[in-house]
Amino acid sequence: MKSSRDYKKLRGPEKAAILFLCLGEKHGAGLMQKLDDYDIHSITHAISALGTIPADLVEEVMSEFMETAGQGGGLVGSMEMAENMLKGFLPEERVSDIMGEIQGPLVGRNVWENFSALNEQVIANYLKEEHDQTVAAILSKVKPEVASKVLPLLGEERMMEVVERMIGIETVPRYVFQNIEETLQKEFMSSATRHTGPDPQQRMADLFNKLDSKLFDEITQRLEQRIPEAFGAIKAKMFTFDDLCKLDPQSLVKVMRGVEGQTLPLALRGAKKEVRDYFLAALPARSRDMLNEEMTAMGPVRGREVQDAQSALVDYALELARDDEIRIPLDDDDVIID
To answer: What is the C-alpha to C-alpha distance for residues 61 and 269, in angstroms, rounded to an integer?
Structure first.
């Protein structure tokens, strides 16, 4: 990490990681005991990846937490430091699991990224020969935008079976993924894996966010009938393009102005009228007129292009939220009302 790195680019887990390093292994372990698994995983991953942290950056982080930077010396985050901190309060087996997910198996670290880069039809053809549980495990590890394209290619009945298994996946033994990774490495690529995330429900929410809206509407009713509780928990974590209407006008304008090229007019061109009206109402009159002209000049647009543009806006909104630039209300009671 270079000293010139902009402090504003530091994400929450990275700031927390720096604070834990300042506290040291003993005090840091005591504090980490109070966190849930998701936060533990995020902070541990950040600690292992920080490297050398300049003293001025340490001071800024400590200042934000209304504390003093002490001696102001630089810190070094490493795999060893992260592992030692976890050993202070977690069983050896749990520590091994977390560090194994972060480090990946010895065969490499990019298998899932490389597998995700394959054409979705190639992935689907390969998965058609696998057991449903194996397919579910594999699609729970690839990028959500890729899984959302592969699932429909499996056929409706098998897609439903796989989706239910993906929702039901909680903890898969590490050796199972290692066997899958080794197989993928032999058949597709020369390098392997990196971890996904500790929250399978959030991963399914991300996948459904990327899924074609009509297809999602089609499977929603069946999932609500067959696994209502699990599916309800996932829906609660979803954030869709229509949910951008929950933002206050100022935050929404910040999202609209942050995307490039034709992304905004393309996204609104295929939006529901009430959603489009909310977007337009947030803009000054001149900007609103210009945007309307751009949408009119576009003519017919492809559904996939609209979906990609809407996904880009959602992704940017979530990025701003992670950087604390905007606040995203996710509960129905938290909707902004004019």
So the answer is: 42
pLDDT for 265 equals: 93
> Which residues, 6 or more positions from 118, have their beta carbon under 8 angstroms from its beta carbon?
188
Most distant pair of Cα atoms in the chain: their distance: 63
Nearest in space to 150 (alpha carbons), one of 164, 161, 139, 165:
139
* Nearest CA among 192, 196, 150, 142 for reference residue 171: 196
Residues 62 and 167 both lie in one domain: no
Residue 181, sorted as left (phi over 0), alpha (psi -120 to 50) or beta, turns out to be: alpha
Question: How much is the average pLDDT of 58-86?
Answer: 60
In angstroms, the Cα distances linking 149 to 79, 81, 113, 231, 237 are: 35, 39, 16, 20, 20
Cβ-based burial of 108 (10 A; exposed 0-12, middle 13-18, buried ≥19): middle
The reply to whether 185 falls in a domain is: yes
Residues 195-205, mean pLDDT to the nearest whole number: 64
Domain with 200, as residue range(s), is 111-235
| Alpha carbon distance 91, 33 (integer Å) | 12
